[in-house]
Design brief:
- InterPro entries: ConA-like_dom_sf, Galectin-like, Galectin_CRD.
- It is a single chain.
- The chain is mostly beta strands.
- The chain has a single domain (18-134), classed as Sandwich (Jelly Rolls), CATH 2.60.120.200.
- It has strands at residues 4-8, 18-25, 32-39, 42-53, 56-66, 69-70, 74-76, 86-93, 97-102, 105-110, 120-125, 127-134.
- The strands form two sheets. Strands 1, 3, 4, 5, 6, 7 and 11 form a seven-stranded antiparallel β-sheet that branches. The chain has a five-stranded antiparallel β-sheet with strand order 10-9-8-2-12, with no helix packed on it.
- The chain is globular, with a radius of gyration of 14 Å.
């Protein structure tokens, strides 16, 4: 069972805006998830840092989900997270992709679902959300 964190459903994030997420990672963390999309069934970005889960170690796995259909997994090997540590992640929404800003690293993930607005955000797993801000 994956613990479910807070869920936001009317963010209204549009291209040119950013969402910054701050929180704490559990001391015995295996993985955590942040989902950004239109709603729970249309996820433009499934962001999943894995300390040790599903055969991945210290890898960030990103994907998109359309109803029950997952896309192709995208893997990032830069892993700036530590068990028991603080995490700050900024998601920048662009016309055609989302830029993920991590400490000392950034990458983009394509907006495969062509979402014009990101209304939905949730966190799951070994992560405690402390603050959300957007601009």
């Amino acid at each position: 069972h994956i613990p479910q964190g807070p869920v936001c459903t009317n963010l209204g994030l549009k291209p040119g805006q950013r969402l910054t997420v701050k929180g704490k990672i559990a001391p015995n963390a295996k993985s955590f998830v942040m989902n950004l999309g239109k709603d729970a069934t249309l996820l433009g970005l499934h962001f999943n840092p894995r300390f040790d889960a599903h055969g991945d170690v210290n890898t960030i796995v990103c994907n998109s989900k359309k109803v029950e259909e997952w896309g192709a997994e995208h893997r990032e090997t830069v892993f700036p997270f530590q068990k028991g540590g603080a995490a700050e992640i900024t998601f920048g929404v662009n016309q055609n992709d989302v830029t993920v800003h991590l400490p000392g690293h950034q990458f983009t993930f394509p907006n495969r679902l062509n979402l014009s607005v990101f209304d939905y955000f949730d966190t799951q797993g070994d992560f405690t959300l402390q603050s959300l801000s957007w601009e």
